[in-house]
Predict the structure.
Amino acid sequence: MAGLPIDEMRAAPPPASPIVEATLALLHQAVRRKLAAHVAQGGAGFDDFVFAAPGSAEDCAISHADVAAVEAALLASGHRFDWSAAISLAERPEAYKGGTGGADAVVFEHPGAITGAPDAQGRTPCGQGDNVVRHEADITGTARYIRSNERVLAWLAEGVPPGTIAIIDDSGGTLTAPILEQFAGVLCAGGTVRSHLGILSREYGIPCFMNSKLSGIADGDTVCMEASAPPRTTEDYQSGMERTGRVWKLAGEA
Amino acid sequence: METRDLALHGLAIKRHAGPAAVAELTGLDAEQAAGELARAVATGRAVEARGAFTLTPLARVALQASYERLCAALRADAGFAAAYHGFERINPELKQVITDWQTIDLHGERRANDHTDQAWDDKVIDRLSALHERAEAVLAGLARALPRMAIYGRKLEAALDRAEGGAIEWVSDIHRDSYHTVWFELHEDLLRLMGRERVE
């Protein structure tokens, strides 16, 4: 990977502000990749990279799209910007502190979720997942999407509310790792029963569905996981056999 | 890596840990690690909760975006890359072994393993031993290119020794440096160094 002149200029302390350090690291990464591409295409090095004529074939300048990617990476981390004029918040509530439509409010709507009308007990089917191990009983709890850092950091400090069924995106579980053992249950949209998260939740004895397909569960809904369903096995994955535990939303308790 | 980068990298792998654990993993001395973590909290790069530290989101982003610079030489090292690919080849098997350790076939059905079937457990630990033998060359290759990697080989061997000696909690228990705990941390370390994403 091509180096930048600034890479050798490390005597200065890191930027005081975390947002500046993150932004610069992302921008430098983008420039470094463009320089590497420039050299790979026969460019001599940093000097002709920097001084290429704008718009020429050699021009690898940072573009609007690159900066948009930097911002997207910052937002994807859960960061929200401070605003100085309320118009910012009004125009892009998803990007600023205090905005609506926070990450935890985005509801999974997986096409593969098996849904239907409420059954005799008033339970509405709202999806299914691969059970990592069979438990004696099904469990009921409060569905909480775990996407924002504020939520994770708050629960890290104060403890997770009892009866929380965590709905999470990734099987690496980077965000949730420190509080995983406090969940009553886990619905993970990715992975398989052999994923790291599957291994951890078996070890903790926490009911967990991997590869979950969910629909219509809002943050705060009372849901039931069919933790007593048979687990999906290695052979099931190899043969493509579907074997899932069901998820219901309970009536009247949203 | 410089001290600050290494301390933040260690904390990213441990996820929620104190200075002693970060020091052990990274090879920093305990005082250095404690100083870096305290500085990280003071500058908004980490938060402390319940006596342990975790990186803030922006600190994670900055670190993630810095690996290309921090690890340029390592990524260009053919020996290290070969050892890394060797690790990735063994990794799916390790996950299968741990899954078979945690569950058991009972009356034609997979149930949680309550570890009352000695024969089943022995067989899984034998598989773990065989896997470790193959992993040794990989671990040696990693440590040749990056000396601090040697800690993983030592901890994996210690966990395996204890498990083979009958202390079965050293296979996958989360609250100790069990075989799976150390393996997972090694994987996390390697993914970061090599700029890869976890597949599942």
Notes: The first strand of chain A starts at residue 123 and ends at 131.
